[in-house]
Specification:
The protein is of the alpha/beta class. The protein has 2 domains: 87 residues, Orthogonal Bundle (Arc Repressor Mutant, subunit A), CATH 1.10.10; 221 residues, 3-Layer(aba) Sandwich (D-Maltodextrin-Binding Protein, domain 2). Helix content is 34%, strand content 22%. It has 9 helices and 14 strands. The strands form 3 sheets. Strands 5, 6, 7, 8, 9, 10, 11, 12, 13 and 14 form a 10-stranded mixed beta sheet that branches. Strands 1-2 form a two-stranded antiparallel ribbon. It has a two-stranded antiparallel ribbon with strand order 3-4. The longest helix is centred in the N-terminal third of the chain and has 23 residues. It is globular. The two termini are 31 Å apart. The N terminus is likely disordered. One of its GO terms (cellular component) is protein-DNA complex. GO terms for molecular function: DNA binding; DNA-binding transcription factor activity. This is Putative LysR-family transcriptional regulator.
C-alpha cells in the first residue's frame, strides 16, 4: 500500500481517470477489502486503518461515483448492484497499480508463496524445487479461496496446493505433480491386513476428515465417487492428532498422499489404493500478468523437477482424478 504524506488528501497522483472521474486507489482498496470481508471493521484491520477512516474513504468513493456501493446490515455490509459491478474493475485497477510499483522498485524482493493443504505436506515438493528457484518467502494460507483472494489483492505472488473449480477470473494455474493416495486406517480395521485396497471396498467404513467436508473438496469428491456414505471428522490440530483419532476407531479411515511422512502413531496402518489409484494434484497458482521476475524461475524449476521425477504420469484407465488434469507447466 502506498503511504501518503501527512496532511495531504488521499493519493491523487496514482488516481486513474475513468469517464472524467478521478478514482483514488486508496479508496478503491478500502472498497475491495470491505467487499471481501463483508465487514468494515475487519477490512479496516486488514489495512491498518481505523474503522472511521475506512468508512470515510468508502463514503468519498460513493459520493464521487454518485451511488451507494454497500448496504449497511446489522451484522456487516453487502454489496449493492452497483458495488458488484465495480468489484472486478476495481481489482484490476489495484492489480495494475501494484504491478506498476513493482516494476520500478529499486530493490528486488523475495517471491511470496503461500501453501495450503498443510496436512498433505506441500512443502515436500517446494523443497525439491527451491534450490534452482530464486529466494522464496513462504507463508501459510487457510484454503484455496483464501489464497485466491490474497493473489488477486497482490498480498502474495504465487501459491502451491490443490486447485479445483470454481476458480476466480484473473488467476492462472499449472499442474506440477500428481501423487498417488493411500488409505490410512486403524490396525483394528477389518481391511487393515490387506496388501492393497480398491476404493469401493471402503464404502462401508467411516471417512474421517480433518474439518468440515464442504471445505475439503478432494475427500468429499472421493466419498461421492466411491459411495462412502458415513463421513465424520473433527478440528484440524495437526497430522499426529488427526491420525491418532483415525487409529482410535476400527471403522475409520482417511486418505493421505503416499509420500507424506507418517508420524509414529500406534495402531495405524497405511494401505495403497488400486483399481483405480486416486491421484492428488498439486498445482502452482498465480495472478495472471504478475511481473515478478522470480515467478518464471519457480515455474521453470517446477517443470524441470516434474520431468526428472516423473511427477505427471497419469493413466485414466488405472488412475482417478476428481477433475480433468490441468495443463502442466
Amino acid at each position: 500500500m502506498i503511504q501518503q504524506p501527512a496532511g495531504e488528501p488521499d493519493n491523487q497522483r496514482l488516481s486513474p481517470k475513468v469517464g472524467g472521474v478521478d478514482l483514488d486507489t486508496a479508496q478503491l482498496r478500502a472498497f475491495v477489502h470491505a467487499a471481501r470481508e463483508a465487514h468494515f471493521g475487519r477490512a479496516a484491520a486488514d489495512l491498518s486503518l481505523t474503522q472511521q477512516a475506512l468508512s470515510k474513504r468508502i463514503a468519498r468513493l460513493e459520493s464521487l461515483l454518485g451511488t451507494r456501493l454497500f448496504e449497511r446490515l446489522g451484522h456487516g455490509v453487502a454489496l449493492t448492484e452497483a458495488g458488484r459491478r465495480l468489484l472486478d474493475p476495481a481489482r484490476r485497477v489495484l492489480a495494475a497499480t501494484d504491478d506498476a510499483v513493482a516494476a520500478v522498485a529499486s530493490e528486488e524482493r523475495p517471491l511470496r508463496v503461500d501453501v495450503w493443504g498443510h496436512l498433505y505436506a506441500p512443502m515436500r515438493t517446494l523443497r525439491q524445487v527451491a534450490g534452482p528457484a530464486r529466494e522464496l518467502e513462504l507463508g501459510h494460507g487457510r484454503d484455496l479461496p483464501a489464497v485466491s483472494a490474497a493473489l488477486l489483492h497482490g498480498d502474495i505472488d504465487a501459491a502451491f496446493g490443490r486447485v479445483h473449480p470454481p476458480l476466480p477470473t484473473g488467476l492462472t494455474h499449472r499442474l506440477v505433480r500428481l501423487e498417488p493416495v493411500d488409505a490410512v486406517l486403524s490396525a483394528g480395521h477389518p481391511l487393515a491386513a490387506e496388501p492393497a485396497l480398491r476404493p469401493e471396498q471402503l464404502r462401508d467404513s467411516v471417512l474421517w476428515a480433518p474439518g468440515a467436508l464442504d471445505r475439503l473438496d478432494f475427500l468429499r469428491r472421493f466419498a461421492d465417487r466411491f459411495g462412502v456414505r458415513e463421513r465424520a471428522g473433527s478440528v484440524n490440530l495437526g497430522l499426529a492428532p488427526f491420525l491418532t483419532e483415525v487409529a482410535a476407531d476400527p471403522r475409520r479411515f482417511s486418505l493421505l498422499p503416499a509420500d507424506v511422512p507418517l508420524p509414529d502413531v500406534p495402531g495405524l496402518r497405511s494401505v495403497p489404493l488400486v483399481d483405480p489409484t486416486p491421484m492428488y494434484a498439486w498445482s502452482l497458482l498465480w495472478r495472471t500478468g504478475n511481473p515478478h521476475p522470480g515467478l518464471s524461475g519457480l515455474a521453470a524449476a517446477c517443470a524441470g523437477e516434474a520431468g526428472r521425477s516423473r511427477w505427471l504420469e497419469y493413466d485414466p484407465t488405472r488412475d482417478w482424478l476428481p477433475d480433468d488434469p490441468a495443463p502442466p507447466l
